[in-house]
Amino acid sequence: MKKFVALGLSFSLCLALAGTRNAGATETAACMQGDLNRDGSMTCREAKSFAVERFKAMDRTGDKRLSMDEMETSMTNIHKTIDANGDRLVDVQEYLSYWCGAAAKKMKGSARGNKQPQFQKMDCNRDGTISNDECLALWTIRFHHADENRDGSLTSKEYVQSVIIWFADMDPNRDSLVTMNEWNNYWIGRCK
How far is CA 168 from the centre of its chain? Predict the structure, then answer.
């Protein structure tokens, strides 16, 4: 049953992406997070490198494990960075510009409740790279999941609350710590 739900959610995300390919949204010159060579797509190698860098930056104690406190502090700081206009709210455009370097697109789907690694969720065409459209698909859905009151913007509290859900998904042994291995399994999984 779980396999069918995971396949259904992945299929929904891919359908959402397919429906947006020719939506005509304006893209910015910025690149998505993790696109190290700035070519407009993220390979598995780039994703792995980015995941390691992000983990190390969040691991304030240097113990090679992330606590919920470290995650909350890091996400609060990221929320401030994403908030380009300084109004203490992150709208969908700011959110997608930060994560994907591009404009928002309308789509529906689910990024929750699926144990498939994020890289695989985003790589809908299974070509081993994440295109800008694939990035937009996942992060648009994540934004809407995090927007608890459906007002089109994320407060710091809403953003950090969404991280609590991610943290639970990243910590399969429920020891309240996320190791580098658990982090990479959540974000990257097995990709070539």
Answer: 15
**Whole-angstrom Cα distance, residue 89 to residue 28?**
21
d(Cα 172, Cα 166) in Å, to the nearest integer?
Answer: 11
- pTM for the whole thing? 0.74
Residue 23: pLDDT over 60:
no
Residue-range domain boundaries for the chain: 2-187
Q: How many CB atoms lie within 10 A of CB 33?
A: 16
- Report pLDDT for 18: 35
140 is written with which tokens? 């648009």
Q: What are phi and psi of 178, to 5 degrees?
A: -110, 120
Q: List the one residue out of 97, 105, 95, 103 whose CA is nearest residue 13.
A: 105
Angle at which helices 180-187 and 156-170 pack, to 10 degrees?
100
Report DSSP state, residue 85. T
Residues 107 and 17: beta-carbon distance below 8 Å: yes
Q: Are 109 and 15 in contact (CB under 8 A)?
A: yes
Q: For 12, how many CA atoms within 13 A lie in the half-sphere containing its CB?
A: 16
Among residues 56, 132, 143, 80, which one has the least CA distance to residue 108?
143
